[in-house]
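Box 3.1 A note on notation
Throughout this textbook, protein chains are presented in two layers. The first layer is the amino acid sequence; the second is a token string describing backbone geometry. Keep the layers aligned when reading.
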Amino acid sequence: MTIFDENLILETINMIKLHNFDVRTVTLSISLRDCLSEDVNIVCDKIKYKLNKYASNLVKYANEIENDYSIPIVNKRIAVTPISLVGESCKEKDYVKIAHALDECAQNLGIDFIGGFSALVEKGFTQGDTALINSIPEALATTEKLCSSVNVGTSKAGINMDAVLKMAETIKKSAELTADKDGIGAAKLVVFCNSVGDNPFMAGAYSGYGEPECALNVGVSGPGVVRAAILDLDKKADLGVLSNKIKQTAYKITGTGELIGRRLAKMLDIPFGVVDLSLAPTPEIGDSVAQIFQAMGLEHAGAHGTTAALAMLNDAVKKGGIMASSYVGGLSGAFIPVSEDAGMIEASSKGYLTFDKLEAMTCVCSVGLDMIAIPGSAPVSTIAGMIADEMAIGMINKKTTAVRIIPSPNKQIGDKIIFGGLLGEAPIMKVSNLSSENFVTRGGRIPAPIHSLNN
């Protein structure tokens, strides 16, 4: 006879109904390494066949599980082999045509986003890498569901500064080509240091070279649940007790995510991949990482102590989650995207959060400078300097960092961009007027740090 714990049942219901708990994404990772051909049309046909073969039931089965468990599955996504590798086999390197084929598949399958329009160029460019990067602005401007990422540095290889400058130009052009939508093209493009091949979150998801033919990766999210758990504690509880509470909550969140992921993988008859522990916020009130800082005792995100609070949160989430699953991967930690977090939006609008403070916080968070709107007039060299700074943080600290900056055309300080949905809205943030030109145009590679020689 099964004995049900009424408190546990009620706690789970409250997590979903009151505190915005959800499975943020189920992401099907699909290898396209067998889709090569000299003919780009054949490549596109092979891609369509492969995606339909594995993903035709993704949305249907995810919806069935959502109904069975009454747990929202917010996004259904696909990540594919970096397309620079796939398109490189073609005599005519028409990456925009491949982008359209991917987007058409995404539309037909009913998924939310497809990631993997990507290249890995930390040590230099191949012909395919260059062609793909050149095509990114047009590809993002003429598709709906496509996401793109480029890795320009690693702790082992250093930072490819030629790629940094090229990506700054690409970000700027992607925003300009989507000026009528507040530069949303740049919101679907991310620049990485130490990118990972099993990340289920967009815009940086792709199926890494060491990944299997197909796998199901899950991203769970529960900032509201963590905030509520902290608020339940005595306000005088010390930081050790606070950390332990976060760990316990992360354990529950992770276990639920893995349950959903394994059930869906079984229905799709594919391997289960990883659970990404990242706390991914939304613009909904109460579903905010920034509001967790307030629950911890800070007046607002941006106060002195914010970086320390984020470091503790990130660490506790990982410690709790790793106890709930043997297969933790992706990025795993806490995201701080400005436009996608109600508390971050408020803090930046009131001037509590500056660009420099956000950069300091990225030293201890999961990703980096994420969904930050800046004036469209910001020069390419300034954007390149931002990327270089963030890549250096990742390279030196042996962690994944990223930049998703939106230089919104025709927008100035005091304006804001509005995307709606999960992408939210953000005020235009002030950036330095000092020039980075002579540094970022030197080219070459910033050498890897001494700790890269650890064989």
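The longest strand covers residues 22-30. Residues 34 and 127 are 20 Å apart (CA to CA).
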